[in-house]
Give the backbone structure.
Amino acid sequence: MAAKDINRVNFTARLGADPEMKFVSNGKAVTEMRVAVAGAGNTFDEAGWFQVVAWEKLGEICNQYLTKGSRVALEGRLQVQTWQDRDGGGNRSKVVIVLTDMVMLDSKPEGDSAPAQPQRPAPKPAAAAAAPTRPTRAPARNVPSQVDSEDDLPF
């Protein structure tokens, strides 16, 4: 019996900027985030920076509830992405973390009546579930843009 390889990362981090959500041509939401992981001594003086992506509902939740500076616990997998340099410089690659789970670690601000965790929407009737829909609301700070092809994404 061969040993199984494991591709899973778990860590806490802070967002270095507001999340950016886009829609690919098939209507799926994808959210990009840049996060900082504390260095030695749990300070951000020597932080490591990582590119994180979240797809579909998880990406929508990240876009709606997270902002620059948010502290989060993240779980995902490493993915190597390669592409041709547009300037003809050859092949390029980078490692991104594709999220499978996210937990918000910040406490709710005083006087904030918004729910601490997103509420799960009620199930849709079968006819409505068959038709692909886009999220109805995104914060004004980050209005999603349409992407013609997943090949156009830089990750």
